[in-house]
Amino acid sequence: MKIHRVRRTTALAAVASIASLSTLAACGSSDEPEADGKVTITVEGWRPGDEQATIDTVNKQAEAFMAENPDIVVEPVEWEWSAETFATQLAGDTLPTSFRVPFTDAKGLAERKQIADVTEYVEALPYFDEFNPSVLEATKGLDGQIYGLPTDVYGVGLHYNRELFEQAGLDPDSPPTNWDEVRTAADAIAEETGQPGYVQMTTNNTGGWMLTTLTYSLGGRMESEDGAEATVDNEQTAEGLQMLQDMRWSDDSMGRNTNFEWGTINEAFAAGKVGMYMSGSDIYNALVTTNQVKPDTYGLAALPLADSGEAGILGGGSVAAVSAKASAEEAEAAVKWNDYYRMARLYDEDAAVTDAKTLSEGDQPVGTPTLPTFDQAKWDEVQGWIEPYVNVPRDQMTSFTDGVFEQTLISEPPSRTQELYAILDSVVQKVLTDENADVDALLADADEQAQTLLDS
Amino acid sequence: MPHPAPTRRPSLNGRVRGSFATFVFLLPMLLVFGLFSWWPIVRSVIMSVQFTNLVTPAEFVGLDNFRAVLADPLLGTAVQNTLWFALLALLFGYPVPLLLAVVMSDVRRARGLFAMLAYLPVVIPPAVAVLLWRFFYDAEPTGVFNTILGWVGLGPVPWLESTTTAMPSLVLEATWAAAGGTVIIYLAALVSVPPDLYDAAEVDGAGILGKVWHVTLPHLRGIMLITLILQIIGTAQVFLEPYLFTDGGPDNSTLTVLLLVYRYAFQNTTGGDYGMATALSLMLAVALAILSLIYFRATRRWAQ
After folding, report:
1. Domain A39-153+319-389, what architecture?
2. Which of A60, A170, A360, B255 places its Cα 20 to 30 Å from the Cα of A196?
3. Are A10 and B20 inside 8 Å of each other by CB?
């Protein structure tokens, strides 16, 4: 009897073990081949936190694409670029087939073979020869191959809160045109409204990104053109940091909370807690879809540039890339989708109008300032096509749209960009949190670190 | 089936030990542990001598990753910051739960309520707690803590916005968040103190402090030694607070070893140095293992 019982428990336990094993095995399911000959791809659709209208609009466009391409099934998913989750998603097979990565990250990802070489599909596009060469360059790896389509080309602008401007007795229709005016306006806003007049990003590599922007606007550079030499310790960066130090500590016009990055500064701005800040010219889209900014309060000015031939605005953008794990068919389908969803509206009248119409019907922003992916003539043409659908307050952005084509567009530092930015993060943080920070010493030290980085 | 080898200590059920049934019952747990705990450990040891992008096959690079970690100027900063956090946590965080538990065990009514209140912070999801405290730590004079300090004419304190106050601010939140768990452990241990001893101490003329010193603390000694090493190991691995509060800033003043591991692996977008990340993790693990070993050797006599 006893033996019998032992046997029974053994059998039970064995069953339990096998059951748990099969559950574990189920975790690692593999891709099943498409039975009906269709290619299924998942694509970046919307950002976490986006409103339902954004999601609906993307889904609608996916359906229209599938109607035109019956062999392809497109599944838009929630996704946002984050260097921190990218590799894990790639390794764990949870990355969408196609997604956008910043210009600055594309080269590194291409070098590590984490995004797919799509040269043959991109070269086959009818407008391939018309790309703005410097924009196309951003999609290339060090091997000269193409790793995606360039999208969302922007120049940095100065975003400001018109409501705070008015409360501070400033004219919201004539935003600052040089850095001295920025400083005076910031001081007035802080004084009159109690809100920080000017805020700058500081963390997660955005501190370095924006310090570089400030440096460019004053005519300096962070690296030599070939990316071999660090030039962090330059007159203009020192001048920029000195200005930040004065605004933070003498004027007290930057507020006491300085921990900001791309998303949190947008949040603070939309909540009316930022007078002015620098970010990409297309930030209004995110401010509307993610942060529900009040359109009346938003203003966009051209970034003030120093009176120097070297001064310019930092430009960037995204590469619509394809996962390294995608099959050739999936990669081809992904480029097709990106051509349809992201590129066609930049060169084809029908596509541009349809896109603008769909967006405006879904209450999504149409007409946010971007920079040309092709040439300026094409860009102007597109602006004409979508004119009837423009629903963003363009008259509150004229300072930028009138001025930006006069400004020199400068690419981000060519070599080890994000790591350089990480070093610069510390410098900006130090200046904004330590009243007695020694700007010259900080820059000398950062320059040394950057040079070590570039040499390695 | 071979006869089970004789064992030194009697097992749960003497007879069953080593039998097939035991093994079968253990199997699910062994599998789960093996797959989700031990296998990742083995993999990270392997990865520490590899260069990998997690897609194409990894290549072996010997001790290069370890060399790169040791050459990183931020390693010294991270180690110093971690030690500073551990020390501050020890000064503030270690006595607080003990004090709370001793006081609570003396309360006759509503002890459960107090225990629950002390434990509540542990129940709040850590990320939520940090977001809440970020709000409290607003550096403007209008921030929650600064307003309170303002009532008594203090501050405003920059909290997370200064290289000197950032770390103590993290420790304060971490202590608040973790104390409840330790309080419960102490409370459980205090139950085992025979009440007669307190009566005897009282007869001998001991006051409250005397009772705590001569009766309570000696009884808690074993538990206290365990919670101490657990706290040291825990604080050496601090990640959540610096990551969510300050991202290591300002100026790397809250960059800890684990945050550096994280940066190597995930934030360093042009490197993606999983090898360096695992190498540093391994170094930390070995350091902690050695520390624990020394600790247990050194305290073996007191613990008994």
Report:
1. 3-Layer(aba) Sandwich (3.40)
2. B255
3. yes
